[in-house]
Design brief:
This protein is mainly beta. It is 11% helix and 41% strand. The protein starts with 8 loop residues before the first helix and ends in a 14-residue tail after the last strand.
Length: 368
């Protein structure tokens, strides 16, 4: 368990989300059809954990918590916190199938070294637990066998990171420690994974799904249990909360809407500063993009490259056929504070890309 000060949950989730990103063959700055630069990577909404899946994960966590050895461990520390605020990242575990990495980012046990992180695998009746570990991030790396190794990174201070490695043998994951990385740019062995480019995209928690459901269009209500939603950080306390419904198989089109989210902390006061319940975010919502068809989204806003002429912009990818993808950019010019409640994004030009399969290039797939 962790007894240090709580780390930023937003920082943690940014490090846990590279598995959501898909690559397209065009590099950022390239254009097709003379319309606009094509983003290098898109987030596939279908890779986001749904409310229904979160329900199964919470059941699995509660089952695990009842085991005597787990209960003893949890009783000796501050616990896992409110399970409505867990966040999960979909992972692929080779021959084991699909898994979910769960971070207890609002647990009072979080510290400077990290938070509790548990790995689950999906079965016919739900999820079962494979690893109970922790840290500020994780990666999945090849093991030379049918199931990849899983790494967890712990911050130890003074630029040092400890790595716990878990290998699947004889039907279970076994952990072994002793690996140290000196700073994020250590390129020795598995430490190179620390420098792997990540994503600023965050899967939203069950509590955030519930707040989105309450503010989203009524047309989404009947399908919300199977909605796929992620956050894209824009600037300061402004996020774009992207939600897709009616999604089919991976990379098939969904009905995508984008909601602005101005983050506030309604429980924070001078008296309860530092308390875990004071750090629970809330959204002031407004719709930025109405329901449109697509499978992925990319953030191409200008805030980092040109803070004096900011522009919020999102590109949505839509599969037209087996051989073509349509890209549509939605944008608006803002002041340096970024988009404010009520601002909507206007659609601009679009381009049709030839499917990589027809040009001999690899089809987009999840990064390892």
């Amino acid at each position: 368990m962790f007894n240090q000060h709580m780390i930023s949950s937003r920082f943690l989730i940014a490090l846990l989300s590279p598995l959501l990103v898909l690559s397209l063959p065009a590099q950022s700055g390239d254009s097709h059809g003379g319309c606009f630069p094509v983003p290098k990577r898109f987030i596939s909404l279908n890779d986001a954990i749904t409310p229904r899946e979160y329900g199964l994960l919470i059941e699995a966590i509660q089952t695990e918590m009842k085991k005597p050895e787990v209960a003893r461990d949890l009783d000796s520390g501050p616990g896992l916190g409110d399970l409505r605020w867990i966040t999960a990242t979909r992972v692929r575990l080779g021959s084991l199938g699909q898994g979910a990495m769960v971070a207890f980012t609002h647990s009072p046990s979080c510290g400077n070294g990290g938070c509790n992180i548990w790995l689950f695998v999906r079965g016919a009746r739900g999820y079962r637990n494979l690893i109970r570990a922790g840290g500020w991030g994780f990666s999945v790396v090849p093991s030379g066998a049918a199931v990849p190794d899983v790494l967890f990174y712990w911050g130890m201070g003074a630029g040092e990171t400890d790595v716990s490695r878990y290998r699947y043998t004889n039907g279970t994951f076994t952990g072994f420690d002793g690996i140290k990385c000196l700073g994020e740019h250590d390129r020795h062995g598995i430490c190179a994974n620390l420098s792997t480019p990540g994503s600023d995209v965050e899967s939203i928690s069950p509590a955030e799904y519930e707040s989105l459901r309450q503010h989203a269009d009524s047309s989404l209500a009947a399908q919300f249990a199977d909605a796929h939603a992620v956050d894209i950080g824009l600037i300061n306390d402004i996020n774009a909360r992207i939600v897709g419904v009616e999604c089919g198989s991976r990379n098939s089109n969904c009905s995508i809407s984008a909601y602005g989210c101005k983050v506030t902390y309604p429980n924070a006061t001078a008296e309860n500063a530092g308390r875990i319940d004071a750090n629970l975010p809330s959204c002031q919502y407004w719709k930025m993009i109405p329901a449109v068809s697509g499978w992925g989204v990319a953030n191409v806003s200008d805030f980092e490259s040109d803070p004096f002429a900011p522009r919020v912009a999102l590109v949505i990818a839509r599969q037209l056929s087996a051989n073509s993808v349509q890209l549509t950019r939605y944008s608006a010019i803002t002041d340096t504070q970024g988009p404010q409640p009520g601002m909507t994004l206007s659609s601009e030009k679009c381009t049709v890309m030839t499917n990589p399969a027809s040009t001999g290039q690899s089809r987009p797939d999840a990064r390892p």
